[in-house]
Amino acid sequence: MTQRSDTSESIPTTGSVQLVPDPRSLEVLGRNHTLEAALAELVDNSIDAGAKHVLIRFVRDGERLVRLLVVDDGSGMADERIDIAMTVGGARSYDDGEIGRFGLGLKAASFSQARSVTVVSAAANADAVGRRWHLTKAKQDYRCDIVDPAFAHALLAHDWGFPESPTGTLVRWDDVKGFPTVASPTAVERFLQSAFAKIRAHLGLIFHRILTRGDVRLLIDVEDAGDIVLRTEVPALDPFGYHRTGAAGWPKRIQVGRGKRKLVLDCHIWPGRANADEFRLDGNLIERQGLYIYYNDRLIQRGGWNGLCHADKQLNLARVALDIDGDVEQVLSLKPEKNGVEVGPAFGPSIVAAASSDGTTFSDYLDHARGTFKEANKRRRTRQPVLPPGKGFAPKLRRSIGRELPLKNEDPIEVRWKRLPDADFFDIDRDGRILWLNKRYRKALAGDRRGGLNDLPVIKALLYLLTENIFAGQNMGPRDKDNIEVWQAILTAAAREEAE
Ligand SMILES: Nc1ncnc2c1ncn2[C@@H]1O[C@H](COP(=O)(O)OP(=O)(O)OP(=O)(O)O)[C@@H](O)[C@H]1O
Ligand SMILES: [Mg+2]
C-alpha cells in the first residue's frame, strides 16, 4: 500500500461551471482602510491624472454630514475609460512613475467608506461622462448606473475654488459609513475636527515629496448650506525633516544587491529628544521608526522594520528611506492597499550582509542610532534640575526647556511686563518668583508684532537662562548681586539703544 495521499499528478475533471464572484465581495474589498487612507487612494488617482489641484469637500446640511466629494483638475476620462475605471481589477497600461498598479484603489477605497460611489469625469475634447455604483444594486447583479451626461457636465462646471479647467474628475461618496449617525451639530463639529487633523497629517506625510515639489495642491473644506467654510491646504510633512543630523557623519547610504535587485537604503539618525511635528507624526514613535518606503515618490510604508530587527524605544531616532519603482523579485512586493510591502526571503540576509562605502553595516547603523538615543538621555539626567518656566513663556518654549533640563517640582518662574519706576530693563522678585520686564521697552522690542502674553520668546529664554539660579538659590550672595548689576547695566543700555 502506498502512503501517498494523492495518487495521480493531474486532477481529473468532468467539465466547468462559471462562478461569478458574489457582489458581496465588493463590500469587503477595502475593509482595513481608514478614512484618510481611503482618501489617499483617490488622491493617488488624481495625481496620476496630472491634477494640479485636488479638493476634498465634506458636505454638511446643518446637523448632518451628508456626503464627501473629491474633485480634481486632472486629465479626466472619456466613455471607454470610465467603464474600466469602475471595474474591480479593471486593467490598463501604466506609464513609468504612476502610482496606480492594481486596478483596485478607487473601488476598495470607496466601498470601505460609502455605500454609493459616483464618478463623473471630463477628458479633453470629450463630453462629460458618469457612472455610479450603488452597493445594494451592485449586489444583485453587478450593474453599474450610467449618470446623465448633462448632470455630470453641470457638476464639473461648478466653481470649486481653484482655477477652472476643461478636464477633471469628481468622485462622490454618499451614505458614508463613518459619518456621525446622530443628527447633532456638536457631533458633526467634533467629527470634522478630528477628520481634518487625521487627513492633513496622513496625506501630508504620504505625499510629502510630491507636495514639496509643488506638483499638486491638496485642499480640504466643508460646504455648509451653500457656504464654504474651514478651507485649509495640506502641508507637506517630511519624516526626514530635521534641521541638524542627530549624529555626525549620518545619514549613510547602504546599497544592497545589483541591477534589478538593487536596493538603496539611506539611513538617518534624528537628533536626540526631537519634538518637531516631522518627528512626532502621529505620536506613535515605536511604529514610526524603521523603513520609509517610497513607490514613485508616494510613501507606501511609514516605519516598521520588516523583520530586520525588533522595534524598541532606543531605536526611535532611526529612520531609513528606501525608494522602489516596483516589486523587487524575491526581495519585496507592494501590498495592494499601498500601506506597506511584503518582504521575500532575500530581503533580510542581503541587507545584513551589505555595507556602506566606508564599511558601515546595517547593524552598525542600529548601534549608532541606539547610542545617540542613550547619550541624549544620559546627558539630560546628569544636568542640574532647574525651576520650571511658567506664565509668559510660550508653551513650545516651556516644553523645549523641559526636554533639555530636568525640572524641579516647585513653583515656576513667571515673566511679566510692567512699568518699572526707572529705566532698568528688568527686576527680579525672588519671593514672588516673577521676572519683571520694563514695559517702556516692549513696543520697541516687539516691533509690529502683537504683544501677547507669550511675546518675545528669544529675550525671555535668554533671561531665563541667565537668572534661573538667582531665583533658585536659598539667598542671594554678593556674587549674585554683582552679576545682576552687570546684566542690568548692559541690558538697559541695549534696550535704550533699541528704543531710539
Ligand atoms: N481622478 C481620476 N482621474 C482620471 N482617471 C481616474 C481617476 N480616478 C480613477 N481613474 C481611472 O480609473 C482607474 C482605476 O482606478 P483605481 O484606483 O481603481 O485603480 P488604479 O489606480 O489603476 O490601481 P490601484 O489599485 O493601484 O490604485 C485608474 O487606472 C484611472 O484610469
Ligand atoms: Mg488608484
Summarize the structure.
Helices cover 34% and strands 22% of the residues.
Blueprint (SSEs and pairs):
Layout: H1 24-28, H2 35-48, E1 53-61, E2 64-72, H3 79-86, H4 105-113, E3 114-122, E4 129-134, H5 135-141, E5 145-146, H6 149-157, E6 168-176, H7 185-206, H8 208-213, E7 217-224, E8 227-233, E9 252-256, E10 263-269, H9 277-280, H10 285-288, E11 290-295, E12 298-302, E13 318-324, E14 332-334, E15 341-343, H11 347-353, H12 362-382, H13 395-404, E16 414-418, E17 426-429, E18 434-438, H14 442-446, H15 457-472, H16 478-499
Parallel strand pairs: 1-7, 11-13, 16-18
Antiparallel strand pairs: 1-2, 2-6, 3-4, 3-6, 4-5, 7-8, 9-10, 10-13, 11-12, 14-15, 17-18
Helix pairs in contact: 2-4, 2-7
The structure holds adenosine-5'-triphosphate and magnesium ion (MG).
Adenosine-5'-triphosphate is lined by residues 41, 44-46, 49, 72, 74, 76-77, 81, 85, 90, 92, 100-107, 169.
